[in-house]
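QUALITY CONTROL LOG
STEP: pairwise intake check
CHECKER ROLE: data steward
CRITERIA: each record must contain a sequence immediately followed by its structure tokens, with no blank fields

ENTRY 1 OF 2
RESULT FIELD BELOW
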Amino acid sequence: MPRYAQLVMGPAGSGKSTYCSTMTQHAEALNRSVQVVNLDPAAEHFNYPVMADIRELIQVDDVMEDDSLRFGPNGGLVFCMEYFANNFDWLEESLGHVEDDYILFDCPGQIELYTHLPVMRQLVEQLQQWEFRVCGVFLVDSQFMVESFKFISGVMAALSAMVSLEIPQVNIMTKMDLLSPKAKKEIEKYLDPDMYSMMEDSSHTIRSAKFKKLTKAICDLIDDYSMVRFLPFDRTDEEGINIVLQHIDFSIQYGEDLELKEPKEGDEEPANLNYDEIFQDTVGS
């Protein structure tokens, strides 16, 4: 039987650890077994139990304090992740070989790990060799996404991870519970965005013709191919949490040996799903 994994990604401060904690509590209420692995060697505190912690293998503080390396925080984290990639046997031993495992990997927030470094892609390939079905879960802070250009920046970050990892990906706006009622209403247009309207609304702020042309090309790409959509995540809303989990389960066909997992009728279609891969997995099972 396959095993299942969520790669929980997103910028620093986007709520990755809170998401993992909320999901484990929600799964416990549903009588589901969900484990968490911490892959952030710079993590200091998290309020969930872990089945494996990369800090047992290597820590950023130790790397930065090494006089022969002399790394800063970002260089130290990259070094730690490359060291981790050369020691996947530690992770394999920590995970064991339990069938039907469902594991959340709480990943570091540095965007370079998902853009021009191969570490996270190597992790995905290794997990797939261990018969994991992997879904990327990309988080962005809803408080950051309240202006058109900030939203486009968040979309591009999510798109970079999706293109780099080549796995099904569900994008989530976190911290919805921290928004004011007015901000919640305002942010609804970013959940299923009309990029052309956003471009028109912000056109008066773009002074450079070249920048305006580039921004329009990006908006066209996102809108024409429906490449990035977001789901809201409010940690106080059990129904909303369940909808997010349904979308992710559907993308990796969790429990397909029992019944086909589909979102509830009327829910938004899952974002960025690799339907060819899902179809092949379903036919081959």
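ENTRY 2 OF 2
RESULT FIELD BELOW
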Amino acid sequence: LPGSILNNTTASSQLAFGITFLLQTVVGIWGNFSLLYHYLFLYHTQYRLRVTDLICKHLTIANILVILSKGVPQTITTLRLKYFASDFACKLILYFEKVGRSMSIGTTCLLSVFQTIIISPKNSCWKNLKVKAPKYIALSISFCWIQCMLVHLIFPLYALYVSEKWHSTNMTNIRDSGYCAATDLENISGSIYTALVVFPEVSCSVLIFWASGSMILTLYRHSQRVQYIHKARVSSRPPAESRATQSILLLASTFMCFHTLSCIFNITLALFHNPSWWLVYTTGLINVCFPFISPFLLMSRDSIISSLCFLYMKNSVSPDLIRKM
């Protein structure tokens, strides 16, 4: 009887995880595709996207990659709909997950640093970059995509290269992600992995932290300088530039919180050869949290929800009106 109660409790807990994964995946996919549709609509109506919109569009694509490669397989597994046994499917899923994760870090870093430069005072050391920075954003995003795809392609190719030698040794470095078992390539080539993946991620995290602090300091100084003007105004609504900065600051802060939690849980997961199911599922949930939440933070910035509602109405709205939202 105690064993059956324990099994029922475990099954109920796994079902709860499965439902949570399902809701997180469905809502996250809907939010990111809605946001991507908004940016594509603006592009096809021949309106030039703002630089921040361009960065956010690629952040949205990265979020979609993470949700499709992490949330969907995890949902299918926890609800026991299918078991992923193919080694090729495993490598492909993990590849897209890592590319999406790296691009999410890179684009969030780029967005934070760019906004920091834009709102910097005219007498700051960034004054010359204010004009030049927008010209290099598209090139920087392209470089990020190429770098992420090539770097994470090295490890599957490395695994194929040493496959015969690897299978002849004791395979103790196998991590179960919940839906497939994959070789821990980081342990095979630790120095290469650190140089190509860990160092860029840590560097981007430091830049995001610095940019967030700089934005907070700039906003504080600006509010102090114009405090007497705000008191004279009837409306207490902050300027558009301040609202945009605050939303990007919120996005960067949210990213840093979930990224830190994700790193802690992933490191903990890597320390165990046979981790418990709740640790595997909790780590999976945290890994998808930022891609799930970020589109709604961006929607609140640009009132995208209202724009999308108007787009689905019979009477189409003027692109001028949509662009101002």
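INTAKE CHECK: passed for both entries
DESCRIPTIVE NOTE, ENTRY 2: The first helix runs from residue 2 to 44.
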